[in-house]
Amino acid sequence: MDERDIYMAKEAMHSAMKKGPMRLALIIMAVLVFFLFLNPWVQIGAGERGVVLNFGAVQENVLGEGLHFRTPVMQKVAIMDVKVQKSLTNAAASSSDLQEVSSEVALNYHIIPDKANIVYQSIGMEFKERIIDPAVQEVVKAVTAKYTAEELITKRPAVSEAMRANLADRLLAHNIAVDAFSIVGFSFSKIFMEAIESKQTAEQLALKAKRDLDRIKIEAEQTVTAARAEAESLRLQKANISEDLIELRKIEANLKAIDKWNGILPQVTGGGAVPFIGVGDIPKR
To answer: Dihedral of the CA atoms 154, 157, 158, 161 (nearest 10)?
Structure first.
């Protein structure tokens, strides 16, 4: 090997040494980019749970809030919302007296966090449409049929509690908890509402008539009582009248007349005699 060949070998070795670290860095960078492209991390937000799927199979462990590592390609994570959610449902039913009733109910519910994987596996993400809405419809019909249309209004708290308890039992079997239940409103047929208004009007008129009758009775009793009292007073006065009392009353009347006399005699008298009031009525001793 001549000097020229030795020189070329050295140059080739130096060139390989220069390219080696750069190639290694490129390889490492490519691996990192590919690794990041596979997205090996998953973030679970507040009020959420992660359902782990190994090649589509639901696993027992449920991921809580925070950042978690997953095996790329093999594992996927489905996010389930476990916060309290609200559902408004309109339901048509019939009361025990066969009146048509339309109800609007509000339901607050949430998925039991530790059972999010079971809910995902058995129901899926459409649990409201598949489970909650049909359950509300069934419960409203079942409970409404136990009460008359009038009782649905007068016993509204009891009706609401019966619906809540029944619905809670049904949904708990699907790992869904009921937080609150309320009846937003009842609506009845036009004929029934007119009948209710007529009944209320009749009751108000009957109550007014009863009050008027009671007032008339009281006034009549007061009049009778007053008349009896007056009659009793007259009777007592009559019973107490005697000849002595009559003479005493006459004397008192004469004395009052004398007190009022001014001492002037009349200028003309019928027979010339001086009149003395009641003198002839004074009994002689």
So the answer is: 160
